Amino acid sequence: MANIHPACKPVSGEFHLLNVQIKEHVAKSFTALLTCNIKVPYMKAVNLEGPPRAGRREAVKDGMELGKKFLAEGEAGARSVCLKLKKTKWTPQQLVNVDEKDLYTNHPLPGFRDSQELFAKEAELFPPGEGWIRHSPTMLVHQHSHVYFVQSGEKAGKYCRQGAGGTGQWVDIEAPHAPQDYDIKVRAASASCVRRGTKFDRAVILNDVTKIARLSLKLALSFVDRPASGFALFQGLRTPEAAQWCAENFHKKLLPRLAEKIHVYKTEELQEILEATLSELDTEVMKSAFPFSGCSALLALLLGNRLVVAGVGDCRVLLLEGEGKASSASRLLDCEGHLEDEEEQLRFWQAGGMVVDGLLHHQQAEKLDDAKRILCAPSVFDVLLAPDDELDVKQVRGAYRKLALKVHPDKQKDKDSVELKAYQYAFARLEESKERLEAMIEEDLEACKQMRRVLHAEVHTRSGAASLLGVDWTPASDSILEEIEKDALKAAKELKKKFSKLQAFVPDFRQAETICDEAVRTMARPCTLESLPRTEALLKEGLQMSRALGVRDMRSPRSVVVMEPKSAAHFVSTSATVRFALLCGPTSALKDEDLIQRAAAHARRPKASALAWNGLAAEAASSAAVCISISPSGKAEAPAKRQKTAQGADTVRGRHILLRHQQVRQADAMLRRDPGRTVQETEELALKTLETLLKTPNQFPKLCRELSDCQTGEHPGQLCGDLGWIAKGQMDAPLDEAIFSLAVNEFSDVISGSRGLHIFQRLA
Asked: Which fold has domain 184-336+561-632?
């Protein structure tokens, strides 16, 4: 983005600070951006964006026209020119005298003056945006980003920061980002289905993160592009507790990070923010009262025309473009951790994990061949010795000779590439373990025995941790939990001293220290006698993925499961409708072509799309999906081109089918009947009804009469479901927005309102 010309002009005694910029897009198009900060007497920001241009000179010409019109007629005049520019094509003759460098030197726009002249005359200035508080008589500070604004004096109007430690010299910095409003409309919806047992998924949609930040966290996000929305989908592992906690708290970790900067965010920085948010959520879950729970997690952030996503575990994001049979799909994000992946198998084998009946567990030696048993051995002792074997050099050498004959790579000619790699790694570990054990035994046999005891301890159970540390295992009240933790820390410190001299010999030394520390955390974790059996029973449950958030027992002391988020970004088109499928858990395993085909008819219906995708995962006990639909907003459309009706632009005629469900509690004077359906049953019926109407629209009266729970379903003939003429603002906001965005004869999405679920059709 290049600054073309900062300038100002007094209008009726009030100063206007005008800035014209040229923005270069990824697709090599150029856009003129006009920013006007008007002091009247407070600072008001006006932002206008010209049309995308193939050449930079055309965009410069747009910027000059916008600036001239603003100076002559103010904001209203500039907006009218902005609409005309979208239809204007500059001829080569009109661009002959357009030279970008003139915008820096000759000041060709009449009435423009240098910004320093403004600051010299203005006694006290105010910066744009929210979040500024008084720092000194002449300075304001943005409390979250620690950016300072000078209101008066020689540097009036400047932005600055303090040096390192807050005591260094003041450093001038550029002005905050002037947020852009993009002409796109965002609709998003989630769908969840529980077929057996408990609901494991949680979805969150934040339609306006700036509003959420202001109301719930008292944060000002005035400098991010708009629309600004956030999305999250979590699929619980073992239990839904981690997913529930993350769904309730992810915005508390994400939004403060966004507020730390009021300048332009690079796309890479936004990706880092989402990854850091996932890491912080993981840390909190690992410390919580449900550390053995876990979840796959997927976050998305839309700022202006940038969608940034990050996830970990069993999740992916799909971009769908086009409509109907012409739809196409591309994978924006596909997280790692599938148990069938060859490289991933070698990683978790070496970390002590194995797959049994399609689930990842800690090693079970009786079900492994020799190579995998060596790879999965949790310590150097277990590579060569059984738990009851004597710890001496003779025993070690005898075990080595037997195993070396079985796992030598040269004897595995009939193995495939994956198995052969496993034998190569196993033989290398076997040789290293023999050398290390012999050296350890010769150094200090008693220290070796202590080390072996630590490495064999089960410290994720309270009884196992207490046995290792020699403390009482009985769950305690919060009042004496601190004393128990002190005793555990003291015992762990003494235990570490007993094997400290083996640090140079044992490859598992750090692991032994981690086990001692993990035992302390187990003893310090709040629990009750009643909850303990249920919590520790989770240790026996396997996982569908080798990457996840939470699941402490699979992460420490050996990383069978890892928490390594992945992220991606996409620049959204402002001239076409696209959808993003956020899939987590069972829905992430669906085939791309099935997802495209199932929701081909719902390009602008996110709720119907999410319901359709969710229905494909019929074999799963619990499944979920989120759909984000982004389309041109139509705000820039000329008033003369808007569709007119007999009653005016703010009135439409429509009809609907109402499907009531159990969560609707309020009395309804227009209720025809109350069938007592669950929300899930109602959503499935609504999707089925909508898809029938899309194929056979003339079936509306018949279906409305049979299914609608509104008294309008009793109207005769073609009037069945008819709502008459509807004025803007007459209905609930979601219903109002839905029906007024429809074309004539078009059917709406499945819309949730205070009366239940609606399917609308606009008639006029």
From this structure: Phosphatase 2c; domain 1 (3.60.40)
